[in-house]
Amino acid sequence: MTAEIISGRVIGNQIREELTAEVTKLKEEHNITPGLAVVLVGEDPASVSYVTAKGRACESAGVFEETIRLPADTPEQEILDLVEKLNDDDRFHGILVQLPLPKHVNEEKVLLKIDPDKDVDGFHPMNVGRMVVGKPTFLPCTPHGIQELLMRSGNGPEGKHVVIVGRSNIVGKPMMNILVQKAVGANATVSVCHTRTKDMAAITRQADIIIVAAGVPEMITADMVSDGVVVIDVGVNRVGMKPSIKTPGKMVADLRGDVDFEGVKEKASFITPVPGGVGPMTITMLLKNTVESAKKTIQ
Ligand code: GUN
After folding, report:
1. Structure pTM?
2. Which residues line ligand 1 (CB under 6 A)?
3. Domains plus CATH for the chain?
4. Residue 244's pLDDT is what?
5. Which residue of the set 98, 118, 160, 208 is catalytic?
6. What is the spatial distance between Cα 298 and Cα 27, in angstroms, rounded to a whole number?
7. How far is the CA of 50 from the centre of ligand 1 (A)?
Protein backbone atom coordinates (compact mmCIF):
# COMPACT_ATOMS: atom_id res chain seq x y z
CA MET A 1 0.00 0.00 0.00
CA THR A 2 1.24 3.52 -0.76
CA ALA A 3 -0.41 6.11 1.43
CA GLU A 4 -2.67 8.88 0.20
CA ILE A 5 -1.25 12.32 1.08
CA ILE A 6 -3.23 14.52 3.46
CA SER A 7 -2.31 18.02 2.27
CA GLY A 8 -2.46 20.79 4.85
CA ARG A 9 -2.00 23.26 2.00
CA VAL A 10 -5.15 22.08 0.19
CA ILE A 11 -7.31 21.67 3.31
CA GLY A 12 -5.91 24.87 4.86
CA ASN A 13 -6.76 26.81 1.67
CA GLN A 14 -10.32 25.48 1.73
CA ILE A 15 -10.78 26.74 5.30
CA ARG A 16 -9.07 30.06 4.50
CA GLU A 17 -11.51 30.61 1.63
CA GLU A 18 -14.40 30.00 4.02
CA LEU A 19 -12.83 32.45 6.49
CA THR A 20 -12.19 35.12 3.85
CA ALA A 21 -15.91 35.03 2.99
CA GLU A 22 -16.78 35.40 6.70
CA VAL A 23 -14.39 38.35 7.06
CA THR A 24 -16.01 40.09 4.07
CA LYS A 25 -19.44 39.55 5.65
CA LEU A 26 -18.27 40.87 9.04
CA LYS A 27 -16.96 44.02 7.36
CA GLU A 28 -20.03 44.59 5.18
CA GLU A 29 -22.74 43.74 7.69
CA HIS A 30 -21.18 44.80 11.00
CA ASN A 31 -18.29 47.11 10.09
CA ILE A 32 -15.94 44.82 12.03
CA THR A 33 -12.45 43.98 10.76
CA PRO A 34 -10.97 41.07 12.74
CA GLY A 35 -7.59 42.09 14.17
CA LEU A 36 -4.63 40.11 15.47
CA ALA A 37 -1.63 41.43 17.44
CA VAL A 38 1.50 39.29 17.31
CA VAL A 39 4.33 39.87 19.79
CA LEU A 40 7.78 38.60 18.81
CA VAL A 41 10.63 38.95 21.31
CA GLY A 42 14.09 38.29 19.87
CA GLU A 43 15.12 36.91 16.50
CA ASP A 44 14.94 33.12 16.75
CA PRO A 45 14.91 32.12 13.02
CA ALA A 46 12.06 29.59 13.36
CA SER A 47 9.92 32.13 15.28
CA VAL A 48 10.66 34.87 12.74
CA SER A 49 9.55 32.61 9.90
CA TYR A 50 6.34 31.54 11.72
CA VAL A 51 5.47 35.15 12.52
CA THR A 52 6.10 36.25 8.93
CA ALA A 53 3.84 33.46 7.65
CA LYS A 54 1.12 34.44 10.15
CA GLY A 55 1.26 38.06 8.93
CA ARG A 56 0.93 37.01 5.28
CA ALA A 57 -1.99 34.68 6.01
CA CYS A 58 -3.86 37.44 7.86
CA GLU A 59 -3.34 39.88 5.01
CA SER A 60 -4.63 37.46 2.39
CA ALA A 61 -7.78 36.72 4.45
CA GLY A 62 -8.49 40.42 5.09
CA VAL A 63 -7.59 40.21 8.80
CA PHE A 64 -5.86 43.29 10.24
CA GLU A 65 -2.52 42.24 11.71
CA GLU A 66 0.24 44.05 13.54
CA THR A 67 3.49 42.42 14.61
CA ILE A 68 5.29 44.09 17.50
CA ARG A 69 8.97 43.13 17.39
CA LEU A 70 10.99 43.60 20.57
CA PRO A 71 14.71 43.01 21.18
CA ALA A 72 15.73 39.76 22.94
CA ASP A 73 16.79 41.65 26.09
CA THR A 74 13.43 43.43 26.61
CA PRO A 75 12.61 43.40 30.35
CA GLU A 76 9.73 41.14 31.42
CA GLN A 77 7.76 44.11 32.81
CA GLU A 78 7.85 45.83 29.42
CA ILE A 79 6.31 42.74 27.77
CA LEU A 80 3.64 42.53 30.48
CA ASP A 81 2.82 46.23 30.00
CA LEU A 82 2.56 45.74 26.24
CA VAL A 83 0.15 42.80 26.66
CA GLU A 84 -2.01 44.92 28.96
CA LYS A 85 -2.10 47.68 26.36
CA LEU A 86 -3.12 45.19 23.66
CA ASN A 87 -5.85 43.78 25.96
CA ASP A 88 -7.40 47.27 26.02
CA ASP A 89 -6.97 47.95 22.29
CA ASP A 90 -10.30 47.36 20.50
CA ARG A 91 -8.61 46.97 17.10
CA PHE A 92 -7.34 43.57 18.23
CA HIS A 93 -9.65 40.58 18.78
CA GLY A 94 -6.69 38.24 19.19
CA ILE A 95 -3.27 38.47 20.86
CA LEU A 96 -0.48 36.00 20.20
CA VAL A 97 2.85 36.07 22.01
CA GLN A 98 5.23 33.90 20.01
CA LEU A 99 6.88 31.17 22.10
CA PRO A 100 9.50 30.40 23.23
CA LEU A 101 10.26 33.66 25.03
CA PRO A 102 13.86 34.49 26.04
CA LYS A 103 15.08 32.73 29.21
CA HIS A 104 14.82 35.80 31.48
CA VAL A 105 11.07 36.09 30.82
CA ASN A 106 8.55 34.01 32.78
CA GLU A 107 6.33 32.59 30.01
CA GLU A 108 3.57 31.59 32.40
CA LYS A 109 3.31 35.13 33.76
CA VAL A 110 3.00 36.55 30.24
CA LEU A 111 0.37 34.01 29.16
CA LEU A 112 -1.65 34.73 32.32
CA LYS A 113 -1.67 38.42 31.43
CA ILE A 114 -3.43 37.89 28.07
CA ASP A 115 -7.17 38.56 28.26
CA PRO A 116 -8.72 35.04 27.96
CA ASP A 117 -11.26 36.50 25.50
CA LYS A 118 -8.38 37.48 23.17
CA ASP A 119 -6.28 34.35 23.76
CA VAL A 120 -6.49 32.96 20.22
CA ASP A 121 -3.62 30.56 21.00
CA GLY A 122 -5.72 28.89 23.72
CA PHE A 123 -2.75 28.89 26.12
CA HIS A 124 -4.28 30.88 29.03
CA PRO A 125 -4.90 28.52 32.00
CA MET A 126 -8.59 29.50 31.98
CA ASN A 127 -8.96 28.38 28.36
CA VAL A 128 -6.86 25.24 28.98
CA GLY A 129 -9.28 24.37 31.80
CA ARG A 130 -12.32 24.95 29.59
CA MET A 131 -10.81 22.71 26.91
CA VAL A 132 -10.15 19.91 29.45
CA VAL A 133 -13.77 19.89 30.66
CA GLY A 134 -15.13 20.19 27.10
CA LYS A 135 -16.55 23.74 27.30
CA PRO A 136 -16.46 25.99 24.19
CA THR A 137 -13.17 27.90 24.07
CA PHE A 138 -10.27 28.84 21.80
CA LEU A 139 -8.54 25.53 21.04
CA PRO A 140 -4.75 25.52 20.58
CA CYS A 141 -4.09 25.93 16.86
CA THR A 142 -1.88 22.94 16.04
CA PRO A 143 -4.02 20.21 17.65
CA HIS A 144 -7.20 21.92 16.42
CA GLY A 145 -5.73 21.94 12.90
CA ILE A 146 -4.91 18.23 13.18
CA GLN A 147 -8.51 17.49 14.17
CA GLU A 148 -9.63 19.33 11.00
CA LEU A 149 -7.12 17.39 8.87
CA LEU A 150 -8.49 14.09 10.18
CA MET A 151 -12.13 15.10 9.69
CA ARG A 152 -11.74 16.66 6.26
CA SER A 153 -9.65 13.74 4.90
CA GLY A 154 -12.36 11.26 5.91
CA ASN A 155 -10.39 9.92 8.87
CA GLY A 156 -12.56 11.10 11.76
CA PRO A 157 -11.23 9.79 15.10
CA GLU A 158 -14.58 8.47 16.48
CA GLY A 159 -13.99 5.10 18.17
CA LYS A 160 -10.41 4.86 16.85
CA HIS A 161 -7.29 4.18 18.87
CA VAL A 162 -5.20 7.35 18.51
CA VAL A 163 -1.60 7.13 19.70
CA ILE A 164 0.07 10.49 20.35
CA VAL A 165 3.86 10.56 20.57
CA GLY A 166 4.99 13.58 22.61
CA ARG A 167 3.50 15.33 25.65
CA SER A 168 4.21 19.03 25.09
CA ASN A 169 1.83 21.72 26.33
CA ILE A 170 1.47 23.04 22.77
CA VAL A 171 0.64 19.79 20.94
CA GLY A 172 0.61 16.45 22.80
CA LYS A 173 -1.39 17.36 25.92
CA PRO A 174 -4.05 19.50 24.20
CA MET A 175 -4.36 16.90 21.40
CA MET A 176 -5.11 14.23 23.99
CA ASN A 177 -7.74 16.43 25.64
CA ILE A 178 -9.45 17.39 22.37
CA LEU A 179 -9.72 13.84 21.01
CA VAL A 180 -10.94 12.23 24.22
CA GLN A 181 -14.00 14.52 24.51
CA LYS A 182 -17.52 13.22 24.08
CA ALA A 183 -18.03 15.32 20.96
CA VAL A 184 -18.21 15.26 17.18
CA GLY A 185 -14.67 14.99 15.78
CA ALA A 186 -13.47 13.30 18.98
CA ASN A 187 -14.70 10.22 20.91
CA ALA A 188 -11.33 8.53 20.40
CA THR A 189 -9.48 6.10 22.63
CA VAL A 190 -6.24 7.97 23.27
CA SER A 191 -2.78 6.75 24.32
CA VAL A 192 0.13 9.13 24.90
CA CYS A 193 3.75 7.96 24.52
CA HIS A 194 6.75 9.98 25.68
CA THR A 195 10.45 9.75 26.49
CA ARG A 196 9.83 7.43 29.47
CA THR A 197 7.48 5.05 27.62
CA LYS A 198 8.66 1.42 27.67
CA ASP A 199 8.55 -0.42 24.33
CA MET A 200 6.96 2.43 22.38
CA ALA A 201 6.73 0.34 19.20
CA ALA A 202 4.40 -2.14 20.93
CA ILE A 203 1.98 0.77 21.52
CA THR A 204 2.38 2.58 18.19
CA ARG A 205 1.67 -0.72 16.36
CA GLN A 206 -1.78 -0.76 18.01
CA ALA A 207 -2.70 2.65 16.57
CA ASP A 208 -5.39 3.35 14.00
CA ILE A 209 -4.08 6.94 13.94
CA ILE A 210 -0.60 8.09 15.03
CA ILE A 211 0.10 11.76 15.77
CA VAL A 212 3.80 12.43 16.24
CA ALA A 213 5.07 15.61 17.91
CA ALA A 214 8.31 14.48 19.49
CA GLY A 215 10.89 16.78 17.89
CA VAL A 216 13.14 13.85 16.91
CA PRO A 217 13.84 13.57 13.17
CA GLU A 218 12.43 10.40 11.55
CA MET A 219 11.97 8.55 14.86
CA ILE A 220 8.83 6.68 13.73
CA THR A 221 9.97 3.98 11.31
CA ALA A 222 7.99 1.46 9.24
CA ASP A 223 8.54 -1.38 11.75
CA MET A 224 6.73 0.72 14.41
CA VAL A 225 3.40 0.98 12.55
CA SER A 226 0.69 -1.38 11.34
CA ASP A 227 -0.66 -1.65 7.80
CA GLY A 228 -3.34 0.93 7.03
CA VAL A 229 -2.44 3.36 9.83
CA VAL A 230 -3.19 7.09 9.41
CA VAL A 231 -0.08 9.17 10.19
CA ILE A 232 0.03 12.84 11.21
CA ASP A 233 3.58 14.22 11.43
CA VAL A 234 3.95 17.43 13.45
CA GLY A 235 7.77 17.43 13.34
CA VAL A 236 9.67 20.31 11.75
CA ASN A 237 13.35 19.44 12.13
CA ARG A 238 16.01 21.50 10.36
CA VAL A 239 18.62 18.89 9.44
CA GLY A 240 20.80 20.92 7.05
CA MET A 241 20.66 23.16 4.01
CA LYS A 242 19.64 22.42 0.42
CA PRO A 243 19.30 24.52 -2.77
CA SER A 244 16.00 26.43 -2.99
CA ILE A 245 13.59 25.28 -5.71
CA LYS A 246 11.85 28.71 -5.84
CA THR A 247 14.98 30.90 -5.93
CA PRO A 248 17.91 29.36 -7.85
CA GLY A 249 21.25 30.01 -6.10
CA LYS A 250 19.64 30.39 -2.66
CA MET A 251 20.07 27.80 0.11
CA VAL A 252 17.13 26.90 2.37
CA ALA A 253 16.77 24.70 5.46
CA ASP A 254 16.17 21.01 4.70
CA LEU A 255 13.14 20.04 6.78
CA ARG A 256 12.42 16.55 8.10
CA GLY A 257 9.45 15.33 10.07
CA ASP A 258 9.39 13.06 13.10
CA VAL A 259 8.32 10.22 10.77
CA ASP A 260 10.49 8.32 8.28
CA PHE A 261 8.18 9.37 5.44
CA GLU A 262 9.64 7.15 2.69
CA GLY A 263 9.44 3.97 4.78
CA VAL A 264 6.16 4.63 6.60
CA LYS A 265 4.20 5.74 3.50
CA GLU A 266 4.48 2.19 2.13
CA LYS A 267 2.45 0.85 5.08
CA ALA A 268 0.13 3.75 5.93
CA SER A 269 -3.25 4.46 4.32
CA PHE A 270 -2.90 8.25 4.79
CA ILE A 271 0.09 10.41 5.75
CA THR A 272 0.90 14.13 6.07
CA PRO A 273 4.05 15.46 4.37
CA VAL A 274 6.66 17.81 5.90
CA PRO A 275 6.47 20.59 4.87
CA GLY A 276 2.88 21.10 3.66
CA GLY A 277 1.09 18.95 6.24
CA VAL A 278 0.35 20.24 9.73
CA GLY A 279 2.23 23.57 9.37
CA PRO A 280 -0.28 25.41 7.15
CA MET A 281 -3.13 24.20 9.40
CA THR A 282 -1.69 25.84 12.53
CA ILE A 283 -1.80 29.25 10.87
CA THR A 284 -5.24 28.58 9.40
CA MET A 285 -6.69 27.78 12.84
CA LEU A 286 -5.13 30.96 14.23
CA LEU A 287 -7.08 32.90 11.60
CA LYS A 288 -10.21 30.93 12.49
CA ASN A 289 -9.86 31.72 16.21
CA THR A 290 -9.28 35.41 15.42
CA VAL A 291 -12.40 35.57 13.23
CA GLU A 292 -14.43 33.71 15.91
CA SER A 293 -13.21 36.20 18.52
CA ALA A 294 -14.27 39.13 16.30
CA LYS A 295 -17.71 37.53 15.78
CA LYS A 296 -18.21 37.43 19.56
CA THR A 297 -18.08 41.24 19.68
CA ILE A 298 -21.32 41.49 17.62
CA GLN A 299 -24.04 42.57 20.04
N1 GUN B 1 5.62 28.49 19.07
C2 GUN B 1 5.46 27.32 18.39
N3 GUN B 1 4.15 27.09 18.15
C4 GUN B 1 3.47 28.13 18.67
C5 GUN B 1 2.09 28.47 18.71
O6 GUN B 1 1.21 27.75 18.24
N7 GUN B 1 1.80 29.64 19.34
C8 GUN B 1 2.74 30.44 19.89
N9 GUN B 1 2.34 31.56 20.50
N10 GUN B 1 4.03 30.16 19.87
C11 GUN B 1 4.38 29.01 19.26
Report:
1. 0.95
2. 96-99, 121, 141-142, 170, 282
3. 31-115 (3.40.50.10860), 141-279 (3.40.50.720)
4. 87
5. 98
6. 11
7. 8
